[in-house]
Amino acid sequence: MWSNSEDPDLGVNSLQDYNLSTNPYFILEVREIEGGKKYAELVLNKQLDRESESSFQLILTALDGGKPAKTGTAKIWITVIDANDNPPVFTQKVYAVKLKENAPKGSSVVQVKATDRDDGSNAQINYSFSNIPESARQKFHLGSQDGTIIVKEILDFEETEGYVMAVEARDGGGLVAHCKVEISLLDENDNAPEVILASLSSPIPEDSAVGTLVALINVNDRDSGDNGKIVSCYLKNDQPFKIPIYILSLLYFLSLHPHCFPEL
Ligand SMILES: [Ca+2]
Ligand SMILES: [Ca+2]
Ligand SMILES: [Ca+2]
Ligand SMILES: [Ca+2]
């Protein structure tokens, strides 16, 4: 930027100098052209940063050599245009969430968020999955504008206990950042125990000794923890049989018993 002031006086009373209001970014370089005319160039002297200062108001003063000196001033407004010099930054590197396995479709899982110090499209962020197993892509949807992850398909703890995926935030100028999302499913009691007759000795001779193994029953519950623990197994009607519990491998043996009552 250059400035040229006119002073119709001659000699010492003509234009002598330029001054610029004090500021950290701009300086004046005063040059002379043929005939002794002076002009000033406004020169950038330090890297600008719109994110810390986005506009300046400078005052340029021109002085003549008279006594007292006469001055003329001009205001210079400078607006700094944004450059995309900041990538998006996620508020967390890792988003770890726990989710009930029976969370209905459309449930919100987590909202990832990235900020960007730039302006306009340089700060406009689009979210997408950058690294995600196909199994997780089928189950979750990510809102490209708001970063919200929602349940897209019914989940099942018994099938998959958790998912890990990477989310990318990309600003309008193409700078990117990544974060990790870890979703752990919480087991719910959504499976009833299954009773399977593994083997049965039938018919049974009437003189079978007490304690003879009659049938092998397998009881299984697909849930975990207490939800999958078999707390009791019994015969509904009074029969001359009992079920002793062998905790190991949840196997139940039905054997002949001298007393006619069921046992836990
Ligand atoms: Ca940016
Ligand atoms: Ca910027
Ligand atoms: Ca389930
Ligand atoms: Ca379950």
Automatic annotation (TrEMBL):
CDD domains noted in UniProt: Cadherin_repeat
SUPFAM superfamilies per UniProt: Cadherin-like
Keywords from the named record: Calcium, Cell adhesion, Cell membrane, Glycoprotein, Membrane, Repeat, Signal, Transmembrane, Transmembrane helix
Domain (Cadherin) ranges: 7-90, 91-195
Annotated localization: Cell membrane
GO molecular function, one term: calcium ion binding
Membrane topology classification: Single-pass type I membrane protein
Superkingdom of origin: Eukaryota
PANTHER family, sorted: CADHERIN-87A, PROTOCADHERIN GAMMA-B3-RELATED
Name of the protein this chain belongs to: Cadherin domain-containing protein
Organism of derivation: Podarcis muralis
